[in-house]
Amino acid sequence: MKAVTGFITGLVFSLGLTLSGMTDPARVVGFLDVAGDWDPTLIFVLGGAVITTFLGYRLAWRRSTPLLGERFQLPTRRDIDGRLLLGAALFGTGWGLSGYCPGPAIVSSSAMTLPLAGFLLTMLLGWWLATRLTHAH
C-alpha cells in the first residue's frame, strides 16, 4: 500500500510541477528575476505550496501516528548553522543559474537536454559530496 500511495503522490506532484510551469527553466528564471523582466505567475505556485504545507502540518500534528507509517518523520532541528546556510546558498545559486530545482529537473528528464543533463549530473555530484563530507565529521 505504501508503494502505491508513493507512486500516486509522486504522479500528482509531477503533474502539478508540469501544469504549473515549474519544469520550464525560462519561467522559473523569469520569476526569480525581480529586478528585470519579472514573471510573477509562479507566485501562485509558491502560495499554494505554503498553504498546503501549513495545513498539512496542522493535520499531521493532530494525529498520533501517520496513516501509512509507524511514526512521523518531522524535522527536529531548529538551529541555523553554517552547513544550512551554505546548502541554501548553493541551492539558490543553482536554481537561479539553471532554472531547475531537483523535483522539476527529475520530472523534466523525460525530455533530456544538455543543460538539464548538466544540472542533474552536478546535482548528483553535490549530493554525493555532501554525503561524504557529512559522514566524515
From TrEMBL:
<keyword id="KW-1133">Transmembrane helix</keyword>
<protein>
    <submittedName>
        <fullName>DUF6691 family protein</fullName>
    </submittedName>
</protein>
<feature type="transmembrane region" description="Helical">
    <location>
        <begin position="41"/>
        <end position="61"/>
    </location>
</feature>
<keyword id="KW-0812">Transmembrane</keyword>
<keyword id="KW-0472">Membrane</keyword>
<feature type="transmembrane region" description="Helical">
    <location>
        <begin position="82"/>
        <end position="100"/>
    </location>
</feature>
<dbReference type="Pfam" id="PF20398">
    <property type="entry name" value="DUF6691"/>
</dbReference>
<dbReference type="InterPro" id="IPR046513">
    <property type="entry name" value="DUF6691"/>
</dbReference>
<feature type="transmembrane region" description="Helical">
    <location>
        <begin position="106"/>
        <end position="130"/>
    </location>
</feature>
